[in-house]
Amino acid sequence: MSWKFCGDDVNGEDRRRRKVAFLLLALAAVMAVASAAFAVEISLSSSNVARIGATPQVEVYCPANPCQITRVTWTLSFPPPRVTALNIEWTPAATGTYTVYVVLYRSDGTTIEGYGSTSVTISTLGSTTTTVNLASPVNPAHIYYVEIAIVES
Predict the structure, then answer these.
(1) What are the C-alpha distances in Å from 53 to residues 45, 59, 134, 136?
(2) pLDDT band at 40 (very low <50, low <70, confident <90, very high)
(3) CATH number where 114 lies
(4) Which residues form the domain of 81?
(5) Would you tell me which of 12, 19, 107, 137 could form a disulfide with 82, CB atoms 3.0–4.6 Å apart?
(6) Could you tell me if residue 34 is inside a domain?
(7) Model confidence over 117-132: pLDDT tens digits?
(8) 45, part of any domain
(9) What is the pLDDT of residue 42?
(10) Do residues 126 and 91 lie in contact, with contact meaning Cβ atoms separated by under 8 Å?
């Protein structure tokens, strides 16, 4: 005589355990194959690798004195309001020709179509304002960051 209690199916429990064991073994086999696939060695000859070179370290001098931009203002067009240019007030460190670059960014760090550059010749030292026209008008609501680079030409 055998006693069977509610929920006490010995054969069913054994089947479930075997299924779980089989699934775990299958998962281990898949992981072993996947790890082997990622551990492939890549071998190339030097003729298959593009050449690259670099200069040794060089000093970089700031073209603005004292290495800062004093003020940035916006040129707007209407309607609707759109930024068409930036006016950058700065003091050059020396006379010469400079290129002023501007890039605008959204809050997530992606660039906006608002970018531009202009060349300016400085013949006398002192504060100067350089206007950089943007490639296309930008909605002011999209502007979160502005990046300005001044390069001595």
Answers:
(1) 18, 18, 34, 36
(2) low
(3) 2.60.40
(4) 64-152
(5) 137
(6) no
(7) 999 999 999 999 999 9
(8) no
(9) 73
(10) yes
Total domain count for the chain?
1
Overall size of the chain counted in residues: 153
Q: What value does the mean pLDDT take over residues 40-49?
A: 78
Q: Is residue 15 part of a domain?
A: no
The amino acid sitting at 5 is F
| Mean pLDDT value across residues 54-69 | 81
pLDDT for 78 beyond 80: yes
Q: Please indicate, yes or no, whether the overall pTM of this predicted structure exceeds 0.85.
A: no
Q: Is residue 18 part of a domain?
A: no
* Interatomic CA distance for residues 66 and 144, integer angstroms: 25
CA separation for the pair 57, 52 (Å, rounded): 16
3-state secondary structure the chain: CCCCCCCCCHHHHHHHHHHHHHHHHHHHHHHHHHHHHHCCCCCCCHHHCCCCCCCCCCCCCCCEEEEEEEEEEEEEECCCCEEEEEEEEEEECCCEEEEEEEEEECCCCCEEEEEEEEEEEECCCCCEEEEEEEEEEECHHHCCEEEEEEEEC
